[in-house]
Specification:
Length: 392
């Protein structure tokens, strides 16, 4: 019976996280306003200008552009495009080093020539001295001439307000209710940078994921991917940088102080009911938990900088480009009675759903089958509880 239970629950869970992986802008596990349900955002795609590309105002000393000064370059599979590093005056910059965070999707050589490998998107970084800049490069299928859109995320707070990230335009939307119009909540549309302060005067760079801490001292946490940082918008509409240096980096120790913590294109973030924050350090293939009391970031699972697929505990486990995260109650028999919470991970590079317990034990639950997932409208997502227990 336990095997059958695992199989049934696993299939439901995998379908849900598959849909979140395919289109995280339109499906998420929410803790509110009804804490025992999953919700789909009522926001229509047409309300989000995620494909409308505007000239970017770079705030660093470097810009990185593709052909025709495209700030959101696209390359076909098996094809190549040239990226160019420029200063703020538009003059080419020499002696620049390039790197791709996902070379299996798009590689780049020392001269800035990008080669498309497989459909998806990669974060490409240019460095010169202490300056660096990162952009998304989309790889399109040759036969369809369509790439995998750089998708955003959606979460709901306890009042029912909806928060939507738009990585292409570098902003966070807020929709006060399901019937309201989405308004800019943080950032400036079409302008990228890393500026804290008043939410509407702040700057982000490719924010891909959001998470809500409903406590009075909480707020909206943002995985600011191209800034390689974790940002927070509090309930007084003030933006602060919580973690990250603004440039890609890696944490080599099990615990790292806030001031030293570094990430490489984080694309997943989650918060539990106690306000603990979990981070998917996507291109470092690791998962972290944030300890605000000790002002430390603690490695939960994965070997930073090493990809793979190994079910184990802590550093012995291996992941490959983890993205979407969701904290689930583990009180049901599915995970065992001694497990309090479980972190669900869309392990994108491995095309798998993984679970991580609070001691860092990683378990593979099943394959993400992106070709057979049912259409979003065909599922009554609000009626599905993947673990048969309360979702917090």
């Amino acid at each position: 019976m336990r095997i059958n239970h695992f199989s049934t629950v696993s299939k439901i869970l995998i379908i849900i996280l598959t849909l979140q992986l395919i289109s995280p802008t339109f499906i998420n596990a929410y803790s509110s306003p009804k804490p025992n349900h999953l919700y789909t955002s009522p926001v229509k795609k047409k309300n989000l200008a995620v494909r409308t590309l505007k000239p970017l105002q770079q705030s660093t000393n470097l810009q990185l552009v593709g052909p025709n000064n495209d700030t959101n370059p696209v390359v076909n599979e098996t094809n190549q495009i040239q990226l160019t590093a420029m200063d703020n005056n538009g003059s080419p910059v020499t002696d620049v080093t390039f790197e791709s965070g996902s070379p299996d999707i798009a590689s780049i050589d020392e001269k800035g020539m990008v080669s498309g490998k497989i459909q998806g998107y990669a974060t490409v970084t240019a460095r010169k001295g202490s300056d660096s800049v990162s952009i998304f490069v989309t790889v399109a299928k040759v036969n369809g001439n369509k790439g995998k859109q750089v998708t955003g995320d959606t979460k709901v707070d306890s009042s029912g307000a909806i928060y939507i990230s738009d990585p292409t335009n570098h902003i966070i939307f807020k929709q006060e209710s399901s019937n309201a119009t989405a308004q800019t909540f943080a950032g400036q549309s079409g302008s990228r940078g890393k500026t804290d302060g008043d939410a509407l005067k702040s700057l982000f760079a490719g924010p891909t994921a959001v998470a809500v801490d409903n406590r009075a001292q909480g707020g909206i946490y943002v995985a600011d991917t191209l800034n390689h940082s974790i940002r927070k918008v509090d309930f007084n509409n003030a933006v602060t940088t919580v973690l990250g240096t603004g440039s890609p980096g890696i944490n080599t120790q099990n615990t790292t102080s806030f001031s030293q913590a570094a990430f490489r294109s984080p694309q997943g973030i989650a918060v539990n009911s106690a306000g603990n924050v979990f981070i998917a350090d996507t291109e470092n293939h690791a998962i972290y938990i944030v300890d605000f009391t000790k002002q430390e970031v603690r490695l939960l699972a994965g070997e930073p900088g090493v990809s793979g697929k190994v079910d184990a505990t802590g550093r012995s486990a291996r992941l490959f480009r983890p993205t979407s995260l969701s904290v689930q109650s583990g009180s049901s028999s599915f995970f065992g009675s001694t497990t309090s919470e479980v972190l669900m991970v869309a392990d994108t590079g491995n095309n798998r759903v993984r679970s991580i317990t609070m001691d860092g034990t990683v378990t593979t639950l099943g394959k993400i089958n992106t070709t057979s997932a049912p259409p979003l409208d065909s599922l009554n997502i609000a009626s599905i509880n993947p673990l048969g227990s309360e979702i917090k």
